[in-house]
Design brief:
Distance between the termini: 17 Å
CATH superfamily of the largest domain: Phosphoenolpyruvate-binding domains
Strand order of the largest sheet: 1-2-3-4-5-6-7-8
CATH class of the largest domain: Alpha Beta
Number of strands: 10
Number of domains: 2
Order of helices and strands: EHEHEHEHEHHEHHEHEHHEEH
């Protein structure tokens, strides 16, 4: 399965210092878990949180959920110990915050290799600064380990002095630049968090906007938003049924020596077949998790 087709509808941040939340994550209907050693952990608890996360990964029990660990920033005093521990943790990926340029990706990749990370451990990049937006095209191809971008719209808002508006217009340029870079190189990309946990209507609107823009899923800060994110970012049954009709009708047209065909009143050609196959593959991947 290609990087972009692995289900990542819901990706939940779990504080590394919260052992109850870590334990609960094993039973949540979430596609991926980001064990956070950075923003969600107080300075005095950094080492303890790292130990909790390592123990949880060693014990396992997370099933098909992707397990990612977010380290502290590469320029912090915790980074060296974080990178050494994560490289040997068995996590699916390392998430590096405050990526600003390609050199940051290269440095993180080198650290993983130096500390014995397996070849299959992926590298994820937090895109949360103005420099990251401007350098996205160079950041994404900087390492073959880099498989996913994660938008950090909260930090981006701080740096831009921007407001969190319902339409997220202040972030559209940055979101678009990162989406373009991710798709140009076949990488996955996740939308940023929604901070107002009481505003589920606004959360759903953000999810639907993210889906329309092209994001693979949504990063989350509370389990109560998982079901909604899973529902929005999964192909709807009617879309899956239409995808099957498109593939069948186009195959029949090709057999007749025709390059295009009309399905449900719409012209269908090869590019629509490719997207239809992606829809079915994603739906099948989601179904297999059940």
């Amino acid at each position: 399965m290609s990087v972009s087709l692995r289900p990542r509808r819901s990706v939940l941040y779990v504080p590394g210092s919260n052992t109850r939340a870590i334990e609960k994550a094993r039973s949540l209907a979430v596609d991926a878990i980001i064990f956070d050693l950075e923003d969600a952990v107080a300075p005095a608890q950094k080492a303890e949180a790292r130990g909790h996360v390592l123990a949880a990964l060693r014990d396992g029990g997370f099933g098909p959920r992707e397990c990612i660990v977010r380290c502290n920033g590469l320029d912090t005093r915790w980074a060296v110990d974080d990178l050494e521990a994560i490289a040997r943790s068995g996590a699916d990926a390392l998430l590096v915050p405050k990526i600003n340029q390609a050199a940051d990706v290269i440095a993180a990749d080198a650290a993983l290799a130096r500390h014995g990370a397996s070849a299959v451990m992926a590298l994820w990049a937090m895109m949360e600064t103005p420099l990251a937006m401007l350098n996205a095209a160079a950041i994404v191809p900087a390492s073959p380990r880099l498989t996913c971008l994660v938008m950090g719209t909260s930090d981006l808002a701080k740096d831009l002095h921007a407001q969190h508006t319902p339409d997220r217009l202040p972030f559209i340029t940055g979101l678009g630049l990162c989406l373009l870079a991710a798709r140009a190189h076949g990488r996955a990309i996740l939308d940023g968090v929604h901070l107002d946990l009481d505003d589920l209507v606004g959360f759903e609107a953000q999810c639907r906007q993210g889906l329309a823009l092209g994001f693979d899923g949504k990063t989350l800060i509370h389990p109560k938003t998982i079901e909604l994110a899973n529902r929005v970012f999964a192909p709807e049954p009617v879309a899956v049924a239409q995808a099957r009709r498109i593939i069948e009708a186009h195959a029949a047209a090709i057999a007749r020596g025709e390059g295009v065909v009309v399905v449900d009143g719409r012209l269908v050609e090869a590019l629509h077949v490719a997207e239809a196959k992606r829809t079915i593959a994603l739906a099948d991947a989601i179904a297999s998790r059940s």
